[in-house]
Amino acid sequence: MFEGSHVAIVTPFKDERVDFATLEKLIEWQIASGTDGIIPVGTTGESATLTHDEHHQVLEFTCRIVRNRLKVIAGAGSNATHEAVSLTKAAEKAGADAVLSIVPYYNRPTQEGLYRHFAAVAGCTGLPVVLYNVPSRTGREIEVETVARCAEVRNIRAIKEAGGSLDRASRLAQIRDMELLSGDDSLTLPMMAVGAVGVISVVANVVPGDMSAMVHACLAGRYDEAREIHHKMLPLTNELFRENNPMGVKAALALMGRISPEIRLPLCELRPENQARLAKVLRDYGLVS
Fold first, then answer.
1. Is the peptide bond before 104 cis (omega within 30 degrees of 0)?
2. Quick check: 136 and 162 in contact, CB under 8 A?
3. Residues 10, 45 contacting (CB under 8 angstroms)
């Protein structure tokens, strides 16, 4: 269901408002570049600083522009279960194909609490649910045993794994009825080698064609080809994550002339030395002159 390259798309701003005209151009570029799915209003989409109205508007707009040409996996997570349920219901109403549900952040629930949270989200919708494990942001990891328990819920179908461990990814790949998606761009190739079926990518915002080509080469077993693309993208990947995401990717897209550089506080522009490093990597890649 979730094979392929999926982009965690940025939310462009102009004059402190969502720039829907630019968002449409970004979506069309992703579709033309072979991307398999779009994740709006996720972490890279600055969901934490969107108003509730903006969140719904971006999601509804994305579904309308996509028009079933690829999958829309809606960011619908919260650290309050009732809010995650509400966002999930809104995603289904908007026409999303699935929802991405992050581990509740800040309140650090137990494994039992995590299971009940995700079961409640899955129970409110007929959509497939993708779990999102990213302990560096949430302060809590879904243990592999809890993921396996969640897999027994009929519509919890995948996990975006951003824990940084290939050992853990290998164990997750063996869970029946649970598809594994890389949530770490630099680890997508090795994760696919141990059983992941694709990626939810930040880097695909900048080089969607190359990310799609690498993922589909892996799916076809063409690992020599995939390694070449991986090594080509790695310097870019490292620079995009030198400061907190999505600071790097929005700076890159702005340098490429695709969006305004606007980002919402408490995130801000890159430090000058990192902006210069990023510009050099983009030039070396052939993305800017």
1. no
2. yes
3. yes
Which domains, and CATH codes, for the chain?
A: 4-222 (3.20.20.70)
Q: Which of 71, 115, 132, 250 is catalytic?
A: 132
| CA quadruple 177, 162, 265, 236: dihedral sign | negative
pLDDT surpassing 90 at residue 34: yes
> What ranges in 198-246 are assigned the alpha helix state H?
208-219, 223-240
Give the CA angle between residues 134, 138, 140 to the nearest 5°.
85
Q: d(Cα 279, Cα 78) in Å, to the nearest integer?
A: 35
- In a 13 Å sphere around the CA of 113, the CA atoms on its Cβ side amount to 12
Predicted local distance difference test score (pLDDT) of residue 1 = 86
Q: What is the pLDDT of residue 238?
A: 97
> What confidence score (pLDDT) does residue 167 get?
96
Q: How many CB atoms lie within 10 A of CB 81?
A: 18
| Residue 263 to residues 11, 20, 266, Cα–Cα distance (Å) | 9, 15, 9
- List Cβ neighbours of 261 (8 Å cut-off, separation of 6 or more): 250, 251, 254, 269
Q: Tokens 């509804």 map to which residue?
A: 60
Residue from 71, 115, 160, 250 carrying the catalytic annotation = 160
Mark whether 280 is an active-site residue.
Answer: no
Q: Is 160 labeled as catalytic in the residue annotation?
A: yes
Mean pLDDT (the chain) is 97
What confidence tier does 23 reach under pLDDT thresholds 50, 70, 90?
A: very high
Q: Which helix (H) or strand (E) holds 91?
A: helix 81-94
Beta strands in the chain (DSSP E): 4-8, 13-14, 17-18, 37-39, 71-75, 98-102, 129-133, 156-161, 179-182, 198-201
Neighbours of 143 (CB within 10 A): 14
